[in-house]
C-alpha cells in the first residue's frame, strides 16, 4: 500500500447549500477551500449505496432487464438495488433480498467480488457486488418493488460478452461481474489441466 501525506490534498468545506433531498439521494453544493488556499465549489450527490449479486445457475448467469429512464433505454443487469436505511452494515443480506425479489432465487453462499465507488468525483454511492453459483428456486419469492417491471433471462458467458458489445449490458457492476465469472472459468480450466 502506498503511504503519503494525503491530508495536504484535503478540501475543507466552508459552507454547504442543500439543493435537493429525495427518497434515493440528496444533492448539495459545497464551497471548499483548496490546498493552495483558493476556493472552489463542489456539487455532490449523497446516496446510501447499492448492492448487487451475480447469480449463476446451471452454467448460465441470471440477468434482469428493465427500462432505465436516465439512459432512455432497456438494458440487462445483474439483480441489484439500493441499500435501504440501516442496511449499510449488511449489504450481503440486501443482495440476497434483491436476488429473491428480482429472480425468485436464493443463494446458499456468496463471494464478494468488489465494493466500489462508481463516480467518486461527485457521488458517495458505494456498490457491493457478490457472486454465487449455488442457487435454489423459491416456491413463493418476495414480491418485486412497486413500479419495477423486469424481464428475466439466463445467458451463457459468450452470450453475456456479446451483450456487452451491443450495449444490451452497459452498467459497470454487471460488466465487472461478467469479467469475474470469466476469470473463475479460466481459473477452473487451468486447475483441471494442472
Automatic annotation (TrEMBL):
Pfam families for the chain: NUDIX (PF00293)
Cofactor: Mg(2+)
GO molecular function ontology, one term from the record: hydrolase activity
InterPro entries: Nudix_hydrolase, NUDIX_hydrolase-like_dom_sf, NUDIX_hydrolase_dom
Gene3D superfamilies given in the database record: Nucleoside Triphosphate Pyrophosphohydrolase
Keywords: Hydrolase
Protein's GO biological process: nucleoside phosphate metabolic process; ribose phosphate metabolic process
A single cellular component GO annotation: cytosol
Coiled-coil segments on the chain, per record: none
Highest taxon of the lineage: Bacteria
Domain Nudix hydrolase residues, every copy: 46-177
Full protein name: NUDIX hydrolase
Species whose genome carries this gene: Lactococcus taiwanensis
Amino acid at each position: 500500500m502506498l503511504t503519503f501525506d494525503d491530508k495536504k490534498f484535503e478540501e475543507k468545506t466552508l459552507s454547504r447549500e442543500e439543493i435537493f433531498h429525495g427518497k434515493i439521494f440528496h444533492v448539495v453544493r459545497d464551497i471548499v477551500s483548496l490546498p493552495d488556499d483558493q476556493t472552489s465549489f463542489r456539487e455532490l450527490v449523497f446516496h446510501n449505496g447499492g448492492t448487487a449479486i451475480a447469480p449463476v445457475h446451471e452454467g448460465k448467469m441470471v440477468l434482469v432487464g428493465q427500462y432505465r429512464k436516465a439512459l432512455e433505454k432497456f438494458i440487462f443487469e445483474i439483480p441489484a438495488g439500493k441499500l435501504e436505511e440501516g442496511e449499510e452494515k449488511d449489504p450481503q443480506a440486501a443482495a440476497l433480498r434483491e436476488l429473491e425479489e428480482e429472480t425468485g432465487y436464493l443463494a446458499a453462499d456468496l463471494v464478494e467480488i468488489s465494493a466500489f465507488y462508481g463516480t467518486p468525483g461527485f457521488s458517495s454511492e458505494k456498490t457491493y457486488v457478490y457472486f454465487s453459483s449455488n442457487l435454489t428456486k423459491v416456491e413463493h419469492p418476495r414480491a418485486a418493488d412497486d413500479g419495477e417491471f423486469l424481464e428475466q433471462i439466463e445467458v451463457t458467458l459468450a452470450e453475456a460478452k456479446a451483450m456487452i458489445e451491443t450495449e444490451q449490458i452497459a452498467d459497470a457492476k454487471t460488466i465487472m461481474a461478467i469479467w469475474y465469472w470469466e476469470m473463475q472459468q479460466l481459473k477452473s480450466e487451468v486447475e483441471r489441466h494442472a
